[in-house]
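Input:
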Amino acid sequence: MTPFDTDDPIFERLKQLPLLTPDRERSDRHRSRCRTRLSRNRRHRLRANAPAEFMRSAVGPIVFAAFCLLYVVGLVTTALRLHQLFQ
Amino acid sequence: MDRDAELQLVERLRAGEPDAFDVVHAAFNGRLYNFLARLSNRREVAEDLLEETWLRLVVHARRLDRDTRLGAWLFTVARHLHASYCRSRLLEDSHAAGLIGLWPYGRPAPSPFDEVEASETHRRIATVLASLPLAYREALLLVSVEGLRHAEAAEVCGVKPEAMRQRVSRARALFARRLADTDARGLTSLNERTI
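Output:
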């Protein structure tokens, strides 16, 4: 609400209206149903995303390790060639 | 609820945390019900629409934008659901019009609202509010009762802030005029308009 409206007598009268409240038992029942559904959705999502998550987290290290291995193999091969050359 | 707390709640809702849902429910359940009940003038309808509003949040929680304003989002959904309800009721009424002669028809019994509005003043204000056109009623409820800013109320109603400002101003003027009328003539004429 803007400062202009806060002192408005009409708005003040409207604010006097009692707040209507929902049936508490029904609200609680429904809230608990919503909670259950939210938890179920979350579990399903986590389960569905698990393989994709694993791939996402594993691909980086695997690629890095492959490059390292290639580098080491290259290094060893070059060292062996040089060793044969100078013998 | 401050903005940072609200943004954290949105993030937790997106992650599907049931505890976050509880916090939002506690903060908005009463306000949404009051809005829907005053909009529809029917307790049972308001209860149904309220439940549907929360279900929509559960279904769409994952797709909420990170900067969602929860209040505006929930009131927008509630308002849309009420509009859909009104449209469906209009269809039902037009269908039922052909059967009208087959069924005893009379004035509906006094609503539970009449019982709740204990004092005469509250009853008068509630009746005048209920007599306003829907667009004016929702504008007044959002801005004066719920304390939304004009821009937020405009977002809820899908209009520009300036249009909302004008709507609130017209609604306010009409409300004041009808309230003055009830002082002069009593509630009878308004009750006829409400039904």
